[in-house]
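> forwarded from #structure-qc
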């Protein structure tokens, strides 16, 4: 069952990683058995007044966002929702999600500003990731 789930996950991720909507590094081809994640962070919305510090904060934030995306791909996303009805009329609805996991062995493939957004691209070799998880 676990190998089927991994195979489905790999096929899904491979299909998703091929199209990057013009924001990916075209020099880095998608490789088999690798998972890719992209993180984004707005530069101008960062707290420091100095542009260079804003850029550093955005770099860090985009890297964390990419790791969050990678964690969601590897561990899944837990979602919860609630709805409130009054007389068969929806009054309120909420949806929340969370992801939790440990990512080892990922590497930054590319990191660059794109207009007012900082972008970080990560790559993870799944075979290497599995070896690290087993402690080999």
């Amino acid at each position: 069952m676990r190998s089927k789930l991994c195979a489905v996950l790999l096929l899904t991720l491979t299909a998703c990683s091929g199209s990057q909507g013009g924001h990916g590094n075209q020099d880095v081809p998608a490789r088999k058995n690798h998972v890719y994640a992209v993180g984004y962070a707005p530069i101008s919305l960062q707290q420091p007044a100095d542009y260079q510090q804003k850029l550093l904060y955005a770099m860090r934030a985009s890297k964390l966002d990419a790791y969050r995306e990678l964690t969601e791909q590897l561990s899944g996303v837990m979602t919860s929702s609630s709805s409130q009805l009054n007389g068969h009329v929806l009054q309120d609805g909420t949806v929340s999600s969370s992801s939790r996991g440990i990512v080892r062995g990922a590497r930054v493939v590319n990191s660059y500003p794109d207009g007012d957004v900082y972008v970080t691209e990560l790559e993870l070799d799944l075979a290497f990731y599995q070896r690290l998880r087993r402690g080999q």
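QC bot note: The radius of gyration is 18 Å. Residues 1-26 have pLDDT under 50 and may be disordered.
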